[in-house]
Amino acid sequence: MDRTALADFLRSRREGLRPEHVGLTSGPRRRATGLRREEVAALASMSTDYYTRLEQRRGPQPSEQLLGALARTLRLTAHERDYLFQVAGRNVPPPGAGADHVAPSLLRVLDQLSDTPAMIISELGETLVQNRMAGALFGDRTRFTGLARSEYYRWFTDPAERRCYPERDHERQSRAHVANLRAAYGSLGPRSRAGQLVEALLRESAEFAELWERHEVGRRFADHKTLRHPEMGDIAVDCQVLFTEDRSQALLVLTAAPTVEDALKLTLLDVVGHQRFGPEDHQPDVAHATSAWARR
């Protein structure tokens, strides 16, 4: 571990970022030209003291997980991410295993989206980053581990995954997931994580096995779909996608369809956030609010 190189590199990248680059606001009294140490620490989910010691060349060797979090926070390119691992004395993630490193170009766009659900996913359907609105709509999709990180795996093995779609759309969604996974399988190969997903799903899901035999291939993200929220009910949205150059990651942006009710539901969702109401709690009266909003 090269403590001097690590400290200098972290400091230079921190000072080269502005708050708006990472979705923060810069107040009128701000004097720092780049991010503050406490801001980097908060974004990377570590203590300010720990990060400060890294920049002061006296911190312990960071774990690979921590280095990955710093790489995302500091918006490092793939080459810069590899250099960070090297000076920290850790093995550089092998090709195909670095999907957790989110493309800085997509992160910059995501940081500007605050009033509409958006998330960055890998080609295996793993949610790498999601904004607050996406969390309110879908829940925290970054919390899963192992094979369950992939929404393709959860779709065929966990009934709860299907609750956010009306039952009439389940068949179409199943086919889209299998087609997306086959495209990733063809790109990454049978010995990749895509291959592990396919092997597991062939064992665990008869529905997946049947669809896999159809050999449908495609990357379907841009779409018009209906999502089901426990408080807001059905919300019709348009899904637009922005891919990285190698198509290994995609930014999904969900916007309300051009109807008054669906647009208002997303507006109310922004207010409700992650709250869930029980049967005796006051439920948002979407129909009444929609009618009142339309009369304005």
TrEMBL record:
<dbReference type="InterPro" id="IPR010982">
    <property type="entry name" value="Lambda_DNA-bd_dom_sf"/>
</dbReference>
<dbReference type="InterPro" id="IPR001387">
    <property type="entry name" value="Cro/C1-type_HTH"/>
</dbReference>
<protein>
    <submittedName>
        <fullName>Helix-turn-helix protein</fullName>
    </submittedName>
</protein>
<dbReference type="GO" id="GO:0003677">
    <property type="term" value="F:DNA binding"/>
</dbReference>
<dbReference type="InterPro" id="IPR041413">
    <property type="entry name" value="MLTR_LBD"/>
</dbReference>
<dbReference type="Pfam" id="PF17765">
    <property type="entry name" value="MLTR_LBD"/>
</dbReference>
<feature type="domain" description="HTH cro/C1-type">
    <location>
        <begin position="9"/>
        <end position="81"/>
    </location>
</feature>
<dbReference type="Pfam" id="PF13560">
    <property type="entry name" value="HTH_31"/>
</dbReference>
